[in-house]
Amino acid sequence: MKDKKITYIFGFGRRTKLNNPDYSDEFFYGFSQFAAEGYDTQLIEFTNINNKFYIYTDRILRKILKLPFYFSNIVSKQNSMIIGDSDYIVFSNERTFLSTYFMFKKAKNKKKIKSAVFIMGLFSKLSNNLLLSKIQKLILNKMFKELDALIFLGIGEFNYASKLFPSISYKFFYMPFEINKDFWQINHAPNLKSRKNILFIGNDGNREYQKVVKIAERLKDFNFIFVTQNLNEGDIKSDNIKLIGGHWNKSDLTDRYMIELYDSSYICIIPIKNSLQPSGQSVALQSMSRGVPVMITKTDGFWDKENYINEKNIIFVNEDSVEDWVDKLIYFSDNFNKLSSISEESIKTFSYLNKKYSFFKNLKKILKV
User: The CATH number of the domain where 71 resides is what?
Assistant: First the structure.
């Protein structure tokens, strides 16, 4: 089987991080492990091809269908040849799948190709308009039939999609996201009392950026570090906020540097909008692996409602007003014994749930590699 060609299709910014010791490998979704085991692996990633026809087509389709088509970032003769030469294809998210669909469909008409896509919030973005929603479902149902597996990283979205597409739900799999334990995990619970910072990290559309600014402005005696490209200096009015611009896809900040930020903080806050997308998952896992307690909005898309227990290994904010966040931050900043207990439990939970490469083993089973 190792003579079979496995192709991964990514968004921007993967190739420069491959085999770079300053970055962890979880956002390669098993690619590194396939390569390490001797499989014939190759990757395609988004780039700015700048084909005017596809740029125009993308805009029209996104405007009309409200689905993430980006043909202008992937469609090329070379990529079509690579896909056509593949035996297995793994799409890193729904955007890469939809944008590659026609090249993929053409290749499948000529040979058998096993395939899987990771779903990350697609179903939380479907339209509320009845007519448009019906059209979206018809299109997605047709496109999904070409796949062997749709892998969901959040149980909420998995359950919702299973009800929405019952005829193809046998292709749906729930697989909790994992980060590389060897890269991230600290060996002992840290001394949180010696730390001064409250950390916020995020760039996705579900983060509550203005809310986190208001939270910090209400707590002027607390030090905040914001790591995001979705705020600028003009948004920051309070001098207790340090803004660090950065995005993983653009290689602005390395994972090694992120460890330094986690290790300077006594709590990590993740205010997010309610949706089915498991937003904040990777940041929460990274933070927990370093023993930094996570305070996060309790949303419908929270990825694992069974193993995360409020104020035992995580801190949920249910009401989610600025006042609720402020009150909880004041309480836990004054109760380091409680915070330290959560820190210890978060490391234990991370270690238990993130067994090395079980994500990869499950992926191999799904693909039947």
Answer: 3.40.50.2000
With cut-offs at 50, 70 and 90, classify the pLDDT of residue 50: confident
Does the model's pTM come out above 0.85?
yes
pLDDT at 320: 76
Q: What is the DSSP letter of 327?
A: H
CA 54 to chain centroid = 27
Q: What is the pLDDT of residue 204?
A: 87
Q: Tally the domains of the chain.
A: 2
Contacts of 302 by beta carbon, 8 Å cutoff, 6+ apart: 154, 156, 278, 296, 308
Instruction: Mention every residue, 6+ apart, whose C-beta is less than 8 A from residue 195.
Output: 264, 265, 266
- Are residues 243 and 206 located together in one domain of the fold? yes
Q: Rounded to an integer, what distance in angstroms lies between the CA atom of residue 351 and that of residue 99?
A: 36
Give the domain extent around 55.
Answer: 5-178+356-367
User: Same structural domain for residues 214 and 239?
Assistant: yes
Residue 162 shares a structural domain with residue 213 = no
Query: Helix or strand or coil: residue 85?
Result: coil
| Ramachandran angles phi, psi of 30, nearest 5° | 100, -10
Structure tokens, 354: 């993130």
